[in-house]
Amino acid sequence: MSLSHCCHPSEALDLFHYPTDPTLRWDDNLNLSKTHYLSPTFWQQPTMELFSREFGQGEPIIILHGLFGFSDNWQTIAKALADHHLVVTPDLRNHGRSPHVPTHTYPEMAEDVAAFMDAHWMFHGTLIGHSMGGKVAMQLALSHPDKVERLVVVDIEPGQADDNHSGIFEALLGLDLSKMTDRNAIEAYLTPRIPELGTRQFLLKNITRNADGTFAWKMNLPVLWKHFTDILAPVSGEPFDKPVLFIRGSRSNYIKNEDWPLIQKLFPKAELVTIDGAGHWVHAEKPAELLAALRNFLDR
Question: In this predicted structure, what is the pLDDT of residue 20?
Fold first, then answer.
């Protein structure tokens, strides 16, 4: 079995005597199929325990969702890639079933994912990130290049982002869920404020029912709004000199031609693929074309 994803650390503690020196390695006496050096961050208390879903087995791929998303948004792509990989889709902080906390910056989220990887015995792997999740993946690659073998960034660039979401925040923050009796009432409120059906349906997935029948947000909406400037902020670090694929939708303005010099500065081996007819939500609008681009990159 492979130590990289054989079991949860709590189970592994029952199987192996733990080395006290983090520079030691598991050797062939343990009859493991691979040898991994234990990452220094493994010995630190994880920032938080992210909720995640897993598909398949093999070398790990971690897919990071965008703003207002959560772990099942990329399920179609994850299942398709699971024929040759272990594909993991975590909820990032302040989203879905992961902890809701007071802060939300890219350095923090990158450390969340680094700790998550160590806690799940994934000391390196491929990162795929969309929008905000793409920036988290970029920051992780820049901060912990040893953890990232390959990087795929979907429809976001590393610099200061344009504000495309203030109107959405205004609509969601104005929605008083305590007064809503059913989902039809919620949609009736949102329709004139968010006319685009696909965007509205995507956002409605963030609403759940409590045990008492009332509605609630799955995401930490007030904190996301408070830290919206941090979500728009650039990532930074030393250049990441490993394979990187940027994918953009032809109908999206999130990666412009003028962004390419900064992309090449931080990611000198970057390539760019444009998916014809896709907007920002490439994985939802053109899943087959996106999957083909991913397979072409991953199978090299």
Answer: 35
> Does residue 33 carry a catalytic annotation?
no
**In which domain, by residue range, is 92 found?**
3-160+229-298
262, 153: one domain: yes
Considering the domain architecture, whether residues 27 and 14 belong to the same structural domain is answered as: yes
Question: Mean pLDDT, to the nearest integer, of 262-287?
Answer: 96
Q: pLDDT at position 47, please?
A: 55
Asked if 5 is an active-site residue, the reply is no
Q: Could you give the CA distance from residue 218 to residue 94 in angstroms, rounded to a whole number?
A: 8
Q: Which residues pair with 90 in a beta bridge?
A: 52
Give how many domains the chain has, as a whole number: 2
Active-site choice (71, 131, 143, 252): 131
Looking at 198, 226, 254, which one is the last position of a domain?
A: 226
> What pTM, to 2 d.p., does this model score?
0.84
In this prediction, residues 135-148 reach a mean pLDDT of 98
